[in-house]
Amino acid sequence: MKKANVAIDGFAGSGKTTVAVELARQLELVYLDTGLMYRSVALQCLREGLDAGQDAVLASLMERFELKMEVVARPHPTCRMILGREDVTDELHDPRVTALVPQVASCSAVRRELVARQQAFARRGGVVMVGRDIASVVLPDAEVKIFLAANLAERARRRSLELAAKGRHLTQQEVEADLALRDKIDSEREDSPLICVAEARQIDTTGRTVAEVVDEISGWVRCGSV
Ligand code: C5P
Predict the structure, then answer these.
(1) Ligand 1 centroid distance, CA of 1 (Å)
(2) How many distinct structural domains can be found in the chain?
(3) Which of 74, 141, 150, 169 has its CA 20 to 30 A from that of 160?
(4) Which residues, given as ranges, of the chain have pLDDT below 50?
């Protein structure tokens, strides 16, 4: 029997990745973080010194873009990006990549190519896919659709902890400003803006534990409903 696909969309720092990894682990699904794919395009632009403001430049990059998504289910669900032959996953949260990615992700040629790869990846089912347009564009037929939110202060607090663990110390205000700007660009772009589709279950993760949120979602997955 084909396993369910789970689409998880939401704002930056809403807990999507943490929740998706734990959900995939518990339900033995594979997990794909589509943000890493957009980040890989941004990284390649930086490496080649390309002008990401020019759609034609990005379109030509996509024609020769060699990206492999390496997904491992056990012992812990992980998803790594192989650019050419190089595993670039650890570079994808560099601040320069994070700053550039919303611009790259606004380009239709980039989205078209990455969405096709994401849809091919999910064809056999059993995927927890995380992003901004998963329920609306990539997997409109996903059995379960989730939209995660959390207030800005909480999202910035979580992001600050992640950054501090990597040795980067930013003020709460700096992190809030960065998240708010990214949310604005992602929500206002013309092609596939971040939206909560009508049939998605909305969960506000503010003040809730990962275990609580995962339990709620896995209940819906088990009964196979939106
Ligand atoms: O999820 P993450 O923060 O890593 O995503 C980085 C950026 O990639 C987002 O801010 C957004 O601009 C873009 N993105 C997107 N569509 C997706 C996933 C990510 O536009 N499905």
Answers:
(1) 31
(2) 1
(3) 74
(4) none
